[in-house]
Specification:
It contains two helices and 14 strands. It has 183 residues and is mostly beta strands. Strands 2-3-6-7-5-4 form a six-stranded antiparallel beta barrel.
């Protein structure tokens, strides 16, 4: 009887050691159980994201709805009901960008705004585009899609746009249209 108990204890101990050595740390896999890779990990209503540098507000992104896809390998936030991006210059003056759709890529800090994009500067100049990117790290706006730029005196069409966030180095690329020149 004693031999049977010792044999049972040895067998159980062997199984326990075997289980310990064959188990993997799959906590990340366990977290994915019940989640579809095509579904967001979270949904937020009335979203408001503020981007600051040294305590100073540089940009603010607001939207009625945000979908959180941070469960993806290349994580992102999606704004299917549109977005409003406010960009602040060094004097705290605000320019705005509105779009029907936006997506923010976490790793690159790039905001991709699409569909009826309207950018309005502090001087009330307006840029119309179908797509516009904002690089939060470089504080830079750009697109390689067709644009229309309307100022108080000019209406300029182009095949792209490139600008810093305070529009002191704004450039419409490959332009045509009505341009007023001072003599």
């Amino acid at each position: 009887m004693n031999t049977l108990i010792n044999y049972t204890k040895s067998t159980m101990m062997g199984i326990a050691v075997l289980v310990l050595f064959t188990c993997k740390n799959n906590f990340s896999e366990v977290k994915k159980i019940g989640l579809s890779e095509n579904e967001p990990i979270g949904i937020a209503d009335t979203f408001n994201l503020k981007y600051t540098d040294s305590g100073k507000l540089k940009a603010q992104l607001t939207s009625p709805k945000m979908l959180d896809f941070s469960n993806r390998e290349f994580a992102y936030f999606e704004f299917p009901e549109g977005a409003l991006l406010d960009v602040f210059d060094e004097n705290n003056q605000k320019s705005t960008v509105q779009a029907d759709y936006a997506i923010v890529y976490n790793k690159t800090n790039l905001i991709d705004m699409q569909g009826n994009v309207v950018l309005t500067t502090t001087k009330q100049d307006t840029l119309f585009a179908q797509q516009l990117y904002y690089d939060q790290n470089k504080e830079w706006l750009f697109t390689n899609k067709p644009v229309t730029f309307k100022s108080k005196r000019d209406l300029i069409n182009g095949k792209g746009f490139d600008s810093n966030s305070d529009f002191t180095r704004a450039e419409v690329l490959e332009i045509d249209g009505i341009i007023t020149l001072d003599e």
